[in-house]
Specification:
It is a single chain. This protein is an alpha/beta fold and 382 residues long. It has a domain at 8-177 and 226-260 and 306-361: Vaccinia Virus protein VP39 (Rossmann fold, 3-Layer(aba) Sandwich). The protein is 21% helix and 16% strand. It contains eight helices and 13 strands. The strands form three sheets. The chain has a nine-stranded mixed β-sheet with strand order 1-2-13-12-3-4-6-5-7, sandwiched between helices. It has a two-stranded antiparallel sheet with strand order 8-11. Helix 5 crosses helix 7 (318-325) and helix 7 (318-325) runs parallel beside helix 8 (337-352). The two termini are 36 Å apart. 35% of the residues are buried.
């Protein structure tokens, strides 16, 4: 099917290499990634086809394999390509859901969870990726199910992978407000601190929090770490694509790991100064973050450009919509030309919307409202 739009490039169009920013490449992700330069992507945010849960109406689609390990093998072809295009300082955020087996040949006894996300995560770690977090996407409005012999599925996984031990991560950009207020200064060890004699060799330390409490602060003056459980409603969308993930799910990954600016010459992210003496910073306006600074050795006249996020299964275009709302660049890959056209229309509509989208993407507030009507959650009833 021909798609007549300036924001879509077909795989095989050699001009893709020079105009790949803010475009959707129509093609199979296993092949289309080859059109992107090595070490060119700052961040990858994607929700690939889950094993045997959706039919995306294309003969070359991933997800309808007979065995879960075959699905892992196909996904690893894509992910090895992603590893090539991702910068050493880059990150991969992978939203995955599990599947219940309906036959032994799928990889487990009938009715058993197949552990598809875990199998893929283990394959990635064997391939050299570093798994930094397993985020739980908790859904306050999960899809109803009539199953009577197990609990309802109310969450999915978002894996956070990196290529190397040193990578771009802006925690200050995603901090959330503290629930407790300032306290009187004290110098006692707080109740949550585990005695040193109880700490194992891999145990962390809370001495930093003890120092902040001693200064009368509830925690870091810019807010607390948002943690690895995110409560976000599923997305409601009545278009032709029936597997849409919410915009707010992409916001934290983009703010934390897709740089606001990178050097246009070498691609190194610009970052902000961070004081190691937090009690000094606390005396200043915490809403005023330090300015971005160049961190490379390029000449001062070399300009900067936004960081870029890749979604190799862009589907309905959610990652691109959030990227543009946060002033980042993006590139998407989509197998189905009809879905690529749909995504382009959604992105254009969001771009032209008079309503600011920044507030809509906030994850800093507790979710109380639930999406009504149609949802696009990917679950099974086995």
């Amino acid at each position: 099917m021909s798609v007549d739009t300036p924001h879509i490039r077909r795989r095989g169009d050699r001009s893709t290499k020079s105009v790949w920013r803010n475009r959707i490449v129509v093609g199979d992700a296993r092949d289309a990634i080859n059109d992107l330069p090595s070490d060119s992507i700052d961040c990858i945010v994607t929700s690939p086809p889950y094993f045997r849960l959706r039919n995306y109406q294309h003969g070359s689609q991933i997800g309808l394999e007979q065995n879960v390990d075959e699905w892992v093998d196909e996904m690893m072809i894509v992910l090895r390509g992603l590893k090539r295009v991702l910068k050493p300082t880059g990150s991969l955020w992978l939203n995955l859901g599990d599947t219940f087996s309906t036959h032994q040949r799928q990889g487990a006894r009938p009715k058993s969870l197949l552990l598809a996300p875990e199998r893929l995560a283990m394959a990635l770690t064997r391939d050299g990726w570093v798994l930094r977090n397993k985020v739980i996407w908790s859904k306050p409005n999960p899809m109803p199910t009539s199953v009577r012999d197990r609990l309802s599925c109310t969450w999915e996984i978002v894996y956070f992978f990196v290529r190397s031990s040193s990578y771009h991560f802006d925690l200050d950009a995603i901090r959330v407000p503290h629930r407790s207020r300032h306290t009187k200064t004290h110098h006692q060890r707080t109740a949550w601190s585990v005695p040193d004699s109880w700490r194992g060799p891999s145990s962390g330390s809370n001495t930093g929090l003890d120092r902040l409490k001693a200064l009368g602060l509830p925690g870091h003056p810019l807010g607390k770490n948002p943690g690895d459980v995110w409560t976000i409603p599923t997305a409601g969308y009545r278009g032709a694509h029936h597997a849409v993930f919410p915009e707010r799910l992409a916001r934290v990954p983009l703010l934390a790991t897709c740089p606001e600016k990178v050097c246009a010459g070498c691609g190194v992210p610009w970052t902000r100064d961070r004081s190691r003496r937090i009690h000094v910073r606390a005396t200043h306006n915490v809403n005023q973050r330090p300015q971005l600074k160049r961190r490379c050795v390029c000449e001062p006249h070399v300009s900067a450009r936004p960081g870029i996020v890749l979604d190799p299964f862009i589907g309905s275009g959610t990652t691109a919509i959030v990227a543009e709302a946060l002033s980042r660049d993006w590139v998407g890959i989509e197998l189905n030309p009809e879905f690529a056209s749909l995504a382009t229309d959604r992105i254009a509509a969001a771009r032209d919307s008079p309503t600011p989208r920044q507030a809509d993407l906030s994850t800093n507030r507790t979710t109380t409202n639930q999406t009504k009507g149609e949802t696009n959650e990917r679950t099974t009833t086995t």
